[in-house]
Amino acid sequence: MKQSMGAKTLLFPTPVLLVGTYDREGKPNLMNAAWGGICCSQPPCIAVSLRKATYSYAAIVERGAFTVGIPSEALMAEADYVGIASGRDGNKFEVTGLTPVRSELVDAPYAAEFPFVLECRLLHTLEIGLHTQFVGEIVDTKADAGVLAADGLPDILKIRPLVFDTAHRGYHGVGPLLGQAFSVGKKP
């Protein structure tokens, strides 16, 4: 029998999404946003939910753009730091040693060290409650050559993305392939 835990923000796994923005003065910033994911296929879109109190909130509204970087396991400390510190108090790129790269397509930066990046144009904003959901149209995806599979698409085991445990507030990695989607279910 299942035990009720009440209404909670629990979902497994939750991706670790590092949102890149420029502030009013053009300073690059990163924040760790656990609330987000792909939300539309056509046009390709991702949604991230931020509190109004975050430094990145105003930047997304003002610039109409953001990036989403997928950090590898090797960047766990940097990913955690940009979720703890505020861009109001300093330059997170300088503190972490990450290298800001100016997107050529949207008015937002990303870190060169992220193996996979989405560049997004703000498409919709939805006030939900404590959080505002920003829907970004993905205008480009970028991947390091070293994380691509033979078919030219990103390989999750080469990216080694972090996932967030919402229950215990921990970071985890991903494991091996268990079965092929849209195939393994064909056999009862």
Automatic annotation (TrEMBL):
One GO molecular-function entry: oxidoreductase activity, acting on the CH-NH group of donors, NAD or NADP as acceptor
Cofactor section: FMN
Key words, A-Z: Flavoprotein
InterPro entries for this protein: Flavin_Rdtase-like_dom, Flavoredoxin, Split_barrel_FMN-bd
Any Pfam family: Flavin_Reduct
Domain annotation Flavin reductase like: ranges: 9-164
Domain of life the protein comes from: Bacteria
Gene3D superfamilies to which the protein is assigned, alphabetical: Electron Transport, Fmn-binding Protein, Chain A
Keyword Cytoplasm in record: no
Similarity-based family: Belongs to the flavoredoxin family.
Protein name (database record): Flavoredoxin
Organism: Geobacter pickeringii
